[in-house]
Design goal:
Blueprint: H1 4-24, H2 28-37, H3 49-54, H4 59-70, H5 74-83, H6 90-106, H7 109-125, E1 127-129, E2 135-137, H8 141-162, H9 169-186, H10 195-205, H11 213-224, H12 230-245, H13 249-255, H14 262-283
Antiparallel strand pairs: 1-2
Pfam families: MPAB_Lcp_cat (PF09995)
Domain ER-bound oxygenase mpaB/mpaB'/Rubber oxygenase catalytic: 51-281
InterPro entries: MPAB/Lcp_cat_dom
């Protein structure tokens, strides 16, 4: 028994380091310290729902769901396929996204604004034409609105299903409102401020959404061919299954993905709870120690 505790601590440390390295990159520790230790006002106070959601292990499932849902807009998917490098550098893209979420959620107001300014600058350079000859630009406010709505819906649904402390209805509305602060800074006009407005906004895009060849190829890459070591592919497969299971049926159908009704859905959800609890355990400081191991991005 005497060797059990040190062995568990070592396992916990190794798992936490592996996860953090994947989502935050080699500069992760320095970025984390800058985000949390730099003094100054923040966009969001410590008690805001956005901090609870983005600091929880459910973000791993929510992030995958967001990528799948966002891909259903042909213009958004065309921009990703042509400019994001998600195939050649998927971890770099994840790390940039997770750092943006961490900085805007937990960082100083100055750093949050700088992160937004950088993203807007990048968006301004992303333009092109789809295979069908339709022009797109990443800075298009309507397109930004879809990316935002899909992201908010995915993060919130994953948190309500797998989060350690799901929000009540007022908290859910407040989370959507918190995210509207970031969306407005990014150039989204009149983003939704509550759950009802979010649902209405997603419905407003439904007629434009479809599973293009690029979207289905991206789904296969994200779900079936992640660049991961063999030991991590099993747990990842269960995270991916839960991301798919949490999509609306129309989104699964558009992407050619299976649905998980009845007992199958219950079984898949059980794996999601087990995995998020495991990630939460690994990323939390062991009893009697100090320090941060939050799963949310570089936070």
């Amino acid at each position: 028994m005497n060797g059990t505790a040190p062995a568990l601590t070592e396992l916990r440390t190794r798992v936490a380091a592996g996860i953090f390295r994947r989502v935050a990159g080699p500069a992760g520790p320095a970025t984390r310290d800058r985000i949390h230790l730099t003094p100054g006002p923040r966009w969001f106070a410590p008690d805001r729902p956005i901090r609870r959601v983005h600091g929880d292990a459910s973000m791993f499932i929510g992030g995958l769901r967001a990528l799948l849902l966002q891909s259903l807009h042909p213009l958004a998917m065309a921009a990703v396929a042509a400019h994001s490098g998600y195939r050649g550098d998927p971890w770099g893209r994840l790390q940039r996204t997770s750092t943006f979420l961490a900085v805007t959620t937990f960082g100083t107001a100055d750093d949050a604004q700088a992160a937004v300014d950088l993203v807007r600058s990048v968006h301004g350079r992303v333009t092109g034409t789809t295979g069908e000859g339709v022009p797109y630009r990443a800075s298009d406010p309507w397109l930004l609105g879809w990316v935002h709505a899909a992201e908010v819906d995915s993060f919130l649904r994953a948190h309500q299903r797998f989060g350690a402390a799901p929000l009540d209805r007022a908290g859910c509305d407040a989370y959507v409102g918190d995210m509207a602060r970031v969306a407005t800074a990014l150039g989204v006009p009149d983003p939704p401020h509550d759950v009802r407005g979010l649902a209405e906004r997603i419905d407003a895009y439904r007629s434009e959404l479809r599973g293009t060849t690029e979207a289905r190829e991206a789904a296969r890459f994200v779900l079936l061919r992640p660049p991961l070591p063999l030991v991590a592919r099993g747990p990842y497969a269960f995270l991916a299954a839960n991301a798919v299971a949490s999509l609306p049926p129309w989104a699964c159908a558009a992407l050619g993905l299976p649905s998980f009704p009845g007992p199958a859905g219950t079984a898949v959800r059980a794996t999601g709870h087990a995995l998020t609890r495991g990630i939460r355990w690994a990323m939390s400081p062991p009893p009697g120690t100090t320090g941060r191991r939050d799963p949310g991005a570089a936070s």
